[in-house]
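input
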Amino acid sequence: MKVLLKWICTAAVVLWALPAAAYDTQAKAAFILDQTTGTVMLNKNGDDAVPPASMSKLMTLLMTFEAIRDGRLQWNEKLRVSQHAMNYGGSTMFLDITDRVTVEDLVRGVIVLSGNDASAVLAEAMSFDGTEAGFAIMMNQRALELGMKNSTFANSNGWPNPRQRMSMRDLVTLSDIMIRDFPSYYPMFAEREFKFDNRAPSNTQNRNPLLSLGIGADGLKTGHTREAGYGLVGSAKKGDRRIIFAITGLDSAGARAEEAERIVAWAFRQFAARTIGEEGEELAQAQVWMGAERTVGLTIKGVPQILVPVTATEQMTTTMEYKGPLEAPIAKGDVLGELVIKAPGLPDARVPLVAANDVARGGFLPRIRTAAQVILAKLNGGLAGGT
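output
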């Protein structure tokens, strides 16, 4: 009886002949996501907690956007500049303690100018105790809530600190959330210039090297320190597809630019999003235990898309997996198993299989028939195994 209920049914079908599609990045750590299908295209040390440099400003920006959405900050609200914020070096807006700067200007100062001082001003305004250190505590809590398991923060801007660490996966997760949840704010990441009060003529240009190339790039943030090397969290969109990636540990700004451009070209040229079947299309029949019907149809809910390589040298297969026979009653739409799609160079895509129809629990006769089948199976097994 236990054996009958636990076997796995599989059916493999060759769909296309496809190539292995490996990518060898020069970055020390990298993570590439196809946002459209949710496919992880590359993970090289992507879960390692490494110095994020200014890429960690994305966390401050997300929390700023959330505060604006929730009414805790206003775009036109003017914030004071503390001595602590003014003292930051590196890339800045050249703010001083006499300034009162709007949230909108500060956000652009962080996105376009990578202002360490602007990031600290925003952090102090949102902090529970008015300090950047207090805001770092809030950042750590929010990171856990967002499922960012390999990120810890000591400041708002990525200033070198042994407790300031993020993984490339976490940076992509953060960017994915920002793009999805704040589509009206996201276009700010594509702005290539911001002249704040004509105060810093040497720091008016966005450092993202992809924005001027016409390849669909529209965000997000660069980063560089001596410890971290050169890094970039980038995103690009072509047609209905969007990719998000994070790289770090490059030796120069030129190497960062070259590697980022290569990633975008590879992701869009070598792969395409494809729709699986049609909604409601029955893919197979699964056996049913103790049901008014002996089988139930298996189908896919909705019209999901998967990522596939575009050229043809190796096989791509699908496998339908479920634990069966399935026990009645079964309701239409119940998840009964998975359609597993294997493509060379990509992780398996798993799409839920659902019941195409209702199957009621069987009456007296179907139960008698099922019991008889079990008894016969045991007898046959016993006879086959006797000596």
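quick obs: The first helix runs from residue 2 to 6.
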